[in-house]
Design brief:
Layout: H1 6-15, E1 19-21, E2 33-35, H2 37-56, E3 61-63, E4 69-70, H3 72-77, H4 80-83, E5 85-90, E6 97-99, E7 120-123, E8 126-129, E9 139-142, H5 147-152, H6 154-161, E10 167-176, E11 191-201, H7 206-223, E12 231-235, E13 247-255, E14 258-269, H8 271-275, H9 280-283, E15 301-302, E16 309-310, E17 313-320, H10 321-332, E18 333-337, E19 343-347, E20 356-362, H11 368-382, E21 388-391, H12 397-406, E22 411-415, H13 417-421, E23 426-431, E24 437-441, H14 445-453
Parallel strand pairs: 3-10, 20-21, 20-22
Antiparallel strand pairs: 1-2, 4-9, 5-6, 5-7, 8-9, 10-11, 11-17, 12-13, 13-14, 14-17, 15-16, 18-19, 22-23, 23-24
The structure holds adenosine-5'-triphosphate.
Length: about 450
Amino acid sequence: MVAKTMDQLVSLCKRRGFIFQNSDVYGGLQGVYDYGPLGVELKNNLKAAWWRAMVYERDDIEGLDAAILTNRKVLKYSGHEDTFSDPMTDCKKCKQRFRADHIKDGKCPNCGSTDLTEPRPFNLMFKTAVGPIDDGETFGYLRPETAQAIFTQFRNVVDSTSRKLPFGIAQIGKSFRNEITPRNFIFRVREFEQMELEYFVKPGEDEEWHEYWKDERVKWWYEQGLSSDRLTIYTTPKEDLAHYSKATYDIEYQFPHGMEELEGIANRTDYDLGNHTKAQDEFNITAHVHENKESTQKLAILDDDNKTWIVPYVVEPSAGLDRGVLAVLTEAYEEEDLGDGNIRTVLKLKKHLAPIKVAIIPLKKNHDGIMDKCNEIKQKLLKLGIGRVALENTGNIGKAYRRHDEVGTPLCITVDFETLEQSPESVTIRDRDTLAQKRINTADLPSFLREYFL
Ligand code: ATP
């Protein structure tokens, strides 16, 4: 059984320190969230899994970490200034604003009035003054996607790594969109993180690679614990494609509020590299677009024969990290009826994603001998490199197990009187999912845990 309602997730996330409303003490900032002590671990673990799959486990992808602040011209030539907008409508009665394409039956979602303005485009980019003079002209943007810096740094990456096609550039980072109606918790927010790969290929090979990346990305989401009956592939109809896309697949997930996009996989053709390339006639190369007089760059690569310049096509798997966190939480959340009116809430997260890997629990609260042993074990485990290790000195073993089930801790180690009395010294290990318990010699703990987690 998965999460029944968004409220259950929101409540767990706040209570246990996964996700908080930003600027909470001043009433919040709409569409902006902060990740708490456990949320930052979960988010970092998901990022690390993506980076491992994209960069470390392949030999055709380089990494990049570009700035958020972006020269206005980048987003002018990328087409975002003209076209990165959503249709907005105002309710004349209650004065609220909405995305026109999210309105059902022509009625205001707030007050039900049908007296709405004609939809008009609303650009989603955040403008910001760069430098001390705010004259309205010298502004930059907070990037609306991480992708553009990958395109504008294309030649620097190629020149510094000597890559040949096909190859990719991967990046994880913040993006900003002034969404008209942020909603559904961290699903649609104004500040979020993306995990984007731009995979550069020879023109003509793009459609094959598009299929390849669709399959790879679905496989990866399964490895993060998402189940096949909650994932679907949606093929975007031609008339709904983004301005840069020839074809797009959306990986959709059954979130608590509905089936919605988790990741987009677009065939961006040579649209972006072409657009950012200085007047292409001058360079004698062909790409879809060639009007840029302001760029200084030829964003092209020499073909295998080292004679012909080609502007590669690009396939882009672009995943939302926050939506990923929401999806794995949705999937992992379970409430189990223990039969006696008690409910066990458990996050069945994959162990590599769990925020706390191991909890050490003393059988008796504040018992000197037991606590000394707990601390000794904890100090040893902290240095293992498996992630966070917690000591839970609540004294009530049942409660301690519940607390850790609720945040998805895969293993609990209990130190009891036998630990102190027996030789060789041993502890109990309890498994979150099977609830099975077994005794293990304390001396064997490091190798056991390393093997289990790494
Ligand atoms: P949507 O149609 O839901 O607005 P999109 O098609 O505009 O999304 P893309 O531009 O393809 O989204 O961005 C790639 C990914 O970035 C999305 O699949 C999503 O996971 C994430 N993303 C986009 N906008 C937001 C947002 N406002 N809040 C959280 N994640 C987002």
